[in-house]
Design brief:
The protein has ten helices and two strands. It has about 240 residues and is mostly helical. It has two domains: about 150 residues, no CATH class; about 70 residues, no CATH class. A two-stranded antiparallel ribbon has the order 1-2.
């Protein structure tokens, strides 16, 4: 079974033994600061704090964190481009405050994404889902998140198996064959994953599994020192942003 680099980083993180509630508080506070505070210096401070904590105390591999943030950066760049373009009688053009608007959008989005990735690379889903239940998150939301997480590994396993078979048959040896193989790969992954998900659902239904599968979660104690440091750091970011802005 294939694995996710972010999931492996979370299991190997130095913060693996910390309470998921503590990390949720810290990362939720960083996301809130990224959304509410001005892009300068609030978002910059949030982004620096999130990256610094991930690569420093949490000891997340820099390569993994950098690869994980690439796709959010691509979506942010596209969103920033569409936000600064104006459509008028003369056709397409740049908005009058294009630079300021793009900078604000990119700053808020990158800082928030870095804070979310800090949580993702330090907290495995097996710790996060029970924490969400304890926080009274609706059961349907938690179940959907758990099922989606499990199906990601089904997709990766199907993708790897089909691509290996195509490579053995020289399916990626030329641009034309690569284009054809890419279409077959997408179709094969979707159909195989759908079939495996259907069989999983039928198997659980046949065993009377009409509710979620309950397991005994690992209890990780909360740290007052960590919480105090997190609250102090968040307060410092807010204070510096207010003073500078």
């Amino acid at each position: 079974m294939r694995s996710l680099a972010v999931d492996e980083a979370a299991w190997g993180s130095a913060w693996r033994g910390r309470s998921p509630g503590d990390k949720l508080l810290l990362c939720a506070g960083l996301v809130g600061c990224a959304l509410v505070l001005p892009a300068w210096p609030g978002s910059v401070l949030v982004g620096m704090a999130a990256v610094g904590l991930a690569l420093g105390p949490a000891r997340v591999p820099a390569r993994t964190f950098g690869r994980a943030i690439r796709w959010p950066m691509a979506f942010i760049a596209i969103g920033a481009l569409t936000a600064v373009v104006s459509v008028g009688d003369g056709g397409l053009g740049w908005a009058p405050d294009a630079a300021q608007r793009a900078g604000s959008l990119v700053g808020h989005a990158l800082a928030g994404s870095a804070a979310v990735l800090l949580l993702a690379t330090t907290t495995p889903m097996s710790d996060l889902l029970p924490a969400l239940r304890r926080l009274r998150v609706p059961e349907a939301v938690v179940e959907v998140a758990g099922v989606t997480y499990r199906l990601l590994f089904v997709l990766l396993d199907s993708l790897h198996t089909i691509r290996e078979a195509q490579t053995a048959r020289m399916g990626w040896s030329s641009p034309r064959r690569s284009y054809h193989s890419a279409g077959l790969l997408a179709a094969g992954v979707l159909t195989r994953s759908w079939d495996r998900a259907r069989r999983l659902q039928e198997g659980l239904a046949g065993r009377g599994m009409e509710t979620g599968l309950r397991v005994l979660p690992e209890v990780l104690p909360s740290s007052r020192a960590f919480l105090a440091t997190a609250v102090t750091g968040l307060a410092g970011i807010v204070a510096v942003s207010v003073v500078v802005a």
